[in-house]
Amino acid sequence: MEPNMEYIVAQVTQKEVGRQFQVGPEIIDYILDRQKSHDLEHDQSMLDRMVDSLATTWVNASNFKVALLGMDIVSALVTRLQERFRTQIGTVLPSLIDRLGDSKDQVRDQAQSLLLKAMDQAASPQYVWDRMLAGFRHKNSRTREAVCFCLISTLNVYGAHGLTLSKVVPHICQLLGDPSSQVREGAMNCLVEIYRHVGERVRVDLGKKGLPQSRTLSLNKCLLCHSSDKNIDDDDSVDGGRSLSSSKGASSVQRTGSMRRPSKESSGAGAVDEEDFIRAFKDVPAVQIYSARELEDSMNKIREILSDDKHDWEQRVWFSIRNLWTDASFQ
Predict the structure, then answer these.
(1) Picking from 18-22, 52-56, 159-163, 233-237, which range would have the lowest pLDDT averaged per residue?
(2) Domains: count for the chain
(3) Do the beta carbons of residue 142 and residue 104 sit within 8 Å?
């Protein structure tokens, strides 16, 4: 007996791990075989049940192999349904965003590849990113960092013209003051990548965001130190006026690489490594310390500021970095 939609949905909705491994390949084969799955597009309620179960039970599974298999099934649905999968993107996005912060590289990479494939075949990059903005505020710092990497990959594959970056930049600016240094570095890399694609107008727009002066100065240094490494069309705006070319196919998604943190060796022009990031903070007002007692007083003041949660996080971090660089020079 050939499987039908009702049978496949029953297999997707059951939660026994061993059974999931058994039926996963069968589900993928059913989806990709148009003769077997001729009823896939005609029963919307069954399709909704299938995608909901895939997102919650498979992609969000604690067993990483089940999560990978679940993303394979979702990928098959994108391949089969193309633009008809657009209505399902909101269902799978929260789970995929969670997987961007997974502890395993393989899961993070596959989640990013699936998101880029959805942008290529099911909906526009802007449509997907409008629904991904909450990822910048995710409770998991690894996810916040990974969302920055995903935006960089999106820009590398689709360019800036398919995105309204003015909607995204404020969220990235918020991450410049994130408690996690890795998230702050990821946000900085994001802004440098946007600068590579869009040009000098990014700095003008950033000047209108009301960022603290210390953060603006360090950001401008990072952007300017990479301005000679890129080719920029200054006629482009942050919003990007032209629509995404339909000539980009699935092969472009294959070129995105992994979700691993950029470095000078791997990222090419526009990357900001730890050395660049630290160097941007070294240009600070001089504070003279002439004795061990003054040094002790300065360190006590740093501790007092850091422990006071009534101060803005950016103020606490900047004050501490400034004094630490100064104190480090005391002999």
Answers:
(1) 233-237
(2) 1
(3) no
